[in-house]
């Protein structure tokens, strides 16, 4: 459930308006703890980017509003802007400038994208709250040491947002509302001293407050167009002309009262999707969308201090078509590059049955802590290839299919045909199943068994295979299986051919007592 960020209480919001309206609007004693430092991420083009970031192709795209012949451009991407397309332009005029792709606004997709971005941001700080419809707010003071200071944190932020497909403005300030307004008005402002807020905020236009149109018109009618000009007004006059709520906004802006924010809580499982701007018929064209979902997943896993060993993907085209596939990992991981490589290999093998318009990723199997250490020889990093054995297995399965790679496991059965089985790589090994069943030290069983035992000719009672076979005196007698109607009675020998090869042969103890070849050592 939502929680209030630490060291914040909502008591200031309950103060009587008459008390808050006394005096001018300049800050009094500092009310906000000195340790607070807020970072606001503002996404001015979120309504358009949420519809286009799933593809790497650069096309001129616009967001439109209105009906019929009155349709206008609400927003244009960089490619469209280079053609001369501007917000507010009639759609017909925009088409006259070049080939453009139109999109209608999808507010539900915007909200989902904002929530997903908030979850991703939790790998930088656990104190993240949403500022709908286009902002995410982070309290970052406690995270500066993790990223070697504010510069390191901002560098990580810029890189991550670019990889996710967002163009963002951001600002840092001692109060959450100040960070929000600075991010909306100017990009990359950094204010760490609350005494500097007045100088940085004073020149911002009233539009950053997003007031009701009537309130903004009322202020402009008396010549107030910036935050600095509004702050110089008498608190009593401002409360009488507009609303005490505006005074509360300024009190929170400059740190005179507390400003509690509801912090996000990381969900128990990860689920996110990307809407594609147009239909995709080639599976490899989904890599860009998949990469951005994996980046979101990596942020989520870091925030949860967890890893996963299964990625559940879904391809869809509305309600007409869907296709699901899983990517299973040999060892738990949150390595984005490795997971992206497996996705590429998987998509290369796929042929889409129908066009796809959406890609979704779900991860509901989390593993806490560090990856388990491999118990076999190949668990160490491969020196020649510089690649871990587990990663090599994952790549091989993604490229050739999961059915192309299986493991062999011993079974508690003395009969050679039933002493082993194929095990899928995802299936856990049977406890104790990899231990040898024999302790006589003779290494009497080969790994290579023939599909069906081969009857051998004999000469004077000696079995023949490319000449007479020389039998090792030691033998292994197997007389078992009477209880399941697959009984057998045999004496097994190691036999050496005239060319030096070692074979595994047996003589039947009942029936015709024939000699048969059952395995090859080398």
Describe the SSE topology.
Layout: E1 3-4, H1 17-20, E2 38-42, H2 46-52, E3 61-65, E4 72-76, H3 78-82, H4 91-96, E5 101-104, H5 107-121, E6 128-131, E7 135-139, H6 150-164, E8 169-173, H7 176-185, E9 189-190, H8 197-201, H9 213-221, H10 227-231, H11 235-241, H12 244-253, E10 262-263, E11 270-280, H13 287-304, E12 306-317, E13 321-333, H14 336-349, E14 356-363, E15 366-368, E16 381-382, E17 387-388, H15 389-400, E18 406-410, E19 420-424, E20 448-455, E21 457-459, E22 462-464, E23 470-480, E24 488-496, E25 502-508, E26 515-520
Parallel strand pairs: 3-5, 8-9
Antiparallel strand pairs: 1-10, 2-7, 2-8, 3-4, 6-7, 11-14, 12-13, 12-14, 12-15, 16-17, 18-19, 20-26, 21-22, 23-24, 24-25, 25-26
Helix pairs in contact: 2-5, 5-13, 11-12, 13-14, 14-15
How would you briefly describe this protein structure?
By secondary structure, the chain is an alpha+beta fold. It has a 5-stranded mixed β-sheet, sandwiched between helices. β8, α7 (176-185) and β9 form a beta-alpha-beta unit.
């Amino acid at each position: 459930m939502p929680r209030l960020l630490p060291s914040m209480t909502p008591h200031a919001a309950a103060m009587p308006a008459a008390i808050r309206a006394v005096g001018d609007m300049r800050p009094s004693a500092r009310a906000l703890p000195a340790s607070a430092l807020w970072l606001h991420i503002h996404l001015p083009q979120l309504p358009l980017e949420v519809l286009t970031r799933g593809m790497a192709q650069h096309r001129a795209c616009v967001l439109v509003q209105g009906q019929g012949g009155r349709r206008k451009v609400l927003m244009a991407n960089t490619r469209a802007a280079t053609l001369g397309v501007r917000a507010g332009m009639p759609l017909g005029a925009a088409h006259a400038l070049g080939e453009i792709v139109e999109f209608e606004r999808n507010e539900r997709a915007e909200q989902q994208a904002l929530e997903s971005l908030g979850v991703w941001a939790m790998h930088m700080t656990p104190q993240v709250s949403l500022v709908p419809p286009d902002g995410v707010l982070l309290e970052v003071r406690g995270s500066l040491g993790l990223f070697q200071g504010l510069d390191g944190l901002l560098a990580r932020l810029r890189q991550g947002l670019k990889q996710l497909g967002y163009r963002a403005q951001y600002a840092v300030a001692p109060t959450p509302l100040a960070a929000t307004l600075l991010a909306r008005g100017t990009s990359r402002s950094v204010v760490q001293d609350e005494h500097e807020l007045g100088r940085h905020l004073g020149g911002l236009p009233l539009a950053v407050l997003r007031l009701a149109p009537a309130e903004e018109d009322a202020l402009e009618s008396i010549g107030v167009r910036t935050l600095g000009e509004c702050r110089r007004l008498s608190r009593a006059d401002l409360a009488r002309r507009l609303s005490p709520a505006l005074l509360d906004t300024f009190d929170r802006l400059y740190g005179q009262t507390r400003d509690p924010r509801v912090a996000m809580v990381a969900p128990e499982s990860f689920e996110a999707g990307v809407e594609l701007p147009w239909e995709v018929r080639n599976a490899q064209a989904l890599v860009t969308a998949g990469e951005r979902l994996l980046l979101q997943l990596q942020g989520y896993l870091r925030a949860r201090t967890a890893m996963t060993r299964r990625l559940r993907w879904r391809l869809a085209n509305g309600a007409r078509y869907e296709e699901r596939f899983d990517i299973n990992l040999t060892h738990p991981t949150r390595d984005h590059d490795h997971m992206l490589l497996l996705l590429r290999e998987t998509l290369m093998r796929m042929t889409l049955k129908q066009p796809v318009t959406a890609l979704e990723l779900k991860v509901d199997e989390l593993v806490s802590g560090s990856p388990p250490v491999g118990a076999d020889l190949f668990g160490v990093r491969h020196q020649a290839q510089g690649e871990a054995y587990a990663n090599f297995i994952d790549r091989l399965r993604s490229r050739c299919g999961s059915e192309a790679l299986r493991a062999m496991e011993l079974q508690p059965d003395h009969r050679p045909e039933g002493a082993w089985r194929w095990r899928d790589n995802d299936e856990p090994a049977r406890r104790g199943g990899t231990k040898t069943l024999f302790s006589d030290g003779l290494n009497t069983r080969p790994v290579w068994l023939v599909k069906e035992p081969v009857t051998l000719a004999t000469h004077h009672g000696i079995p023949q295979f490319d000449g007479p076979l020389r039998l090792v005196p030691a033998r292994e007698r197997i007389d078992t299986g009477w209880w399941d109607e697959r009984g057998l009675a045999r004496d097994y020998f190691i036999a050496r051919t005239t060319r030096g090869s070692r074979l595994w042969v047996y003589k039947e103890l009942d029936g015709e007592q024939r000699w048969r070849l059952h395995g090859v050592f080398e």
